[in-house]
Amino acid sequence: MLTRTFLHFPQVGERRERALWRFGFCDWHAIVRSVAPSPWRHLWDEWQREAEMSLRAYEVGDATYFASRLPKSAWWRAIPDFAHRAVFLDVETDGTHRITVLGIADGEGYRAFVRGQDDWDEARERLESAKMLVTYGGSHFDLPVLRANFPDWQLPPLHLDLCPLLRRLGLRGGLKAVERQVGLSRSPETDGLNGWDAVHLWWRYVDYNDERALATLLRYNREDVVHLSPLLALVYERLWEQTLRATQPTPLSVAHDRQ
Fold this sequence. Notes:
- By secondary structure, this protein is α/β, with parallel strands linked by helices.
- The protein has two domains: 2-60, DNA polymerase, domain 1; 81-237, Ribonuclease H-like superfamily/Ribonuclease H (Nucleotidyltransferase, domain 5), CATH 3.30.420.10.
- It contains 13 helices and five strands.
- It has helices at 14-22, 28-33, 44-59, 63-69, 79-82, 121-128, 142-149, 162-168, 175-182, 195-208, 211-226, 228-246, 253-257; strands spanning 86-93, 99-106, 109-114, 132-135, 158-161.
- It has a five-stranded mixed sheet with strand order 3-2-1-4-5, with helices on both faces.
- A hairpin with a 5-residue loop joins strand 1 and strand 2 (99-106).
- The longest helix is centred in the last third of the chain and has 19 residues, at 228-246.
- The protein is elongated.
- The relative contact order is 0.13.
């Protein structure tokens, strides 16, 4: 889907992009090798330059290039191309902005980093080597918390917050509510727990040395993290289907797109 995207081209929005697809310009290669059609002759040189730069960035896996040029609402289109370099992340706190557990999953599997127990250099390395970061509600919680705790860490250039993306698909609510809507289940130990329960579990562990509370907290965090992967796949599949449906012309659409 990324190579079919023209939203980062000069003066291209969703309507003009759909017009390009209907005219048969299905990817950047088609722009580079084609003679300018009359509706866009005045833009073609700029579009060919952008197509060539996009192809070079794509060939070397330059996620920063696309993060800097594409609107954030279109970052989901890069999922198939950068998912193999993605990190799925969820943080727990003590009720303030202090991180207690940082859970991440990537190609090496899931790993929880616990405050006071672990050296978090590994977490930093795994985040800084990734191309894409996947969270649920991370724009308003996880990322601000991460930056407050680790201001020197460099986060992946592409951030996919699944909460607003799923909302576009009609799936609303917190992570647990969305999980129920799509058929994802929790373990008996964590079913029904929420973020405030995670805070209380941490303080039970700290105040009473309750290892069972910590084990439950880590299981809760693990499920928060590993459920992001199937949700990411669902987001891509359904948004791609929506985009394909939007390319079907209506009687007056092509005439309007030429203007």
